[in-house]
Specification:
single chain; 404 residues; alpha/beta; Aspartate Aminotransferase, domain 1; Aspartate Aminotransferase, domain 2; 2 domains; seven-stranded mixed beta sheet; three-stranded antiparallel beta sheet; 13 helices; globular
């Protein structure tokens, strides 16, 4: 059977492959420490599980409307007003099966073969592949040296007459960087002037540290309502630790949402009504769980920064949000895939290669687990990379012997 050249060229996400490897190691009884994870360990909010249970107990779990349930769309309108200071209506909302489909459907709505999609490095691994799946051309904007933020001039230089969309993920996966308000403001103006769809991947927007706030693109918009070029994407996966429920949404102009709805109808039919009930419960319930998660992650961030600073040659810009850090290991090994494989093989620590995020020489370290896992995992890494370290060492309850 002949496989489509377009489909055959799509790379599988390194993050999912490494999750599978970590799960297999655990299933084999190995003392693996997963520092590449992309999901918080906090429990799902009680209000979410209660709402899902009520829905399930009703024995009436049917198709949802294509663009999402009216109750959940109304709650997203309220969420947008409360968190973005932006007034919209249910007609401006699309509920989807996660934030990722919402981003893809937004791109599908504006990108034709040969069109360009601009986004900064480091980037979430799916952005370039999504652009290529649509016949588009991914255009990566490099950050300023020693930082994770490109200059506005670099963005402006990357925009051409073929640019149809720009994607900004802030706080950023994989670096944890929070883009400056000045840059977001300038990018909003650039997209408005050039009629470019600005997709704001805000899935981590409340997981920000040190008293800061992630800038909202809506705060800088001159074109609003039906004239807006902004598509704000969010969901319950990260803030509410509801990764398995697969509910996300997009807020955009009514015309854009209507097109995205038609695309969704042909691919997904509709989001899961059971998962929607859980998402509604989370949004309507006590929001203390979000602050609790944010506070825990900030403390874990501090532990991760402190532990990584003990590894000679490693450079790190402290994350401003999310649950990821992206230390630079290029002074030790500039080949991030090779280094990741080495760490898994020798000390059973799972990280993610920076090359897949457009940041070769870096590794993504997640701190969404426990402080103990962070400390023990980074200690294993430090020992593995220390040529002058002891031949044998016990870290936690595991003994390692150097054979390299």
């Amino acid at each position: 059977m002949r496989i489509s050249a377009v489909a055959d060229a799509i790379a599988g996400p390194a993050t999912l492959k490494l999750n599978e490897k970590a799960n297999q190691l655990k299933a084999d009884g190995k003392p693996v420490i997963h520092l590449g994870s992309g999901e918080p360990k906090a429990p799902v909010p009680q209000a979410a599980t209660d709402a899902a249970r009520v829905k399930l107990d009703s024995a009436v779990v049917r198709y949802s409307p294509t663009s999402g349930s009216p109750d959940l769309k109304k709650e997203v309108v309220e969420y947008t007003r409360r968190n973005y200071r932006y007034e919209c209506s249910p007609a401006n909302v699309l509920i989807s099966s996660g934030a990722k489909p919402a981003i893809f459907f937004a791109l599908y709505s504006v990108v034709q073969p040969g069109d360009e999609v601009v986004f900064p490095a480091p980037y979430w691994v799916s952005y370039p592949e999504m652009a290529r799946m649509l016949g588009g051309v991914p255009v990566v904007v490099a950050p300023e040296p020693g930082t994770f933020e490109p200059s506005f001039e670099s963005f402006a230089a990357a925009v051409t007459d073929r640019t149809r969309a720009m994607i900004i993920n802030s706080p950023n996966n994989p670096s944890g960087h929070v883009y400056s308000a000045a840059l977001i403001k300038d990018l909003v103006r650039l997209c408005e002037e050039r009629d470019i769809c600005l997709i704001m991947d805000d899935i981590y927007h409340k997981l920000v540290f040190d008293g800061r706030e992630a800038p909202s693109a809506f705060d800088f918009a001159r074109r609003t309502g039906e004239d807006s070029v902004i598509v704000a994407v969010n969901g319950v996966s990260k803030l509410y630790a509801m990764t398995g429920f697969r509910i996300g949404w997009a807020v955009a102009s009514k015309r854009m949402i209507n097109v995205m709805k038609n695309v969704q109808a042909q691919i997904l039919s509709c989001p899961s009504s059971l998962a929607e009930a859980a998402a509604l419960g989370a949004l309507e319930g006590d929001q203390g769980c979000v602050e609790s998660l944010r506070s825990t992650l900030q403390a874990n961030r501090d532990v991760m920064v402190g532990e990584l600073s003990k590894i000679p040659g490693v450079k790190l810009n402290a994350p401003g949000g999310t649950f990821y850090s992206l230390p630079d290991f290029s002074a030790i090994d500039a080949n991030s895939h090779r280094l990741c494989e080495f760490l898994v093989e020798k000390v059973m620590v799972v990280t993610v290669p920076g090359k897949d995020f457009g940041a070769e020489g870096h590794l993504r370290f997640s701190y969404c687990g426990s402080a103990r896992e962070i400390i023990e995992g980074v200690e294993r890494v430090r020992w593995a990379l220390d040529p002058n370290g002891p031949r044998q060492i016990t870290i936690g309850s595991t003994t390692f012997t150097r054979d390299w």
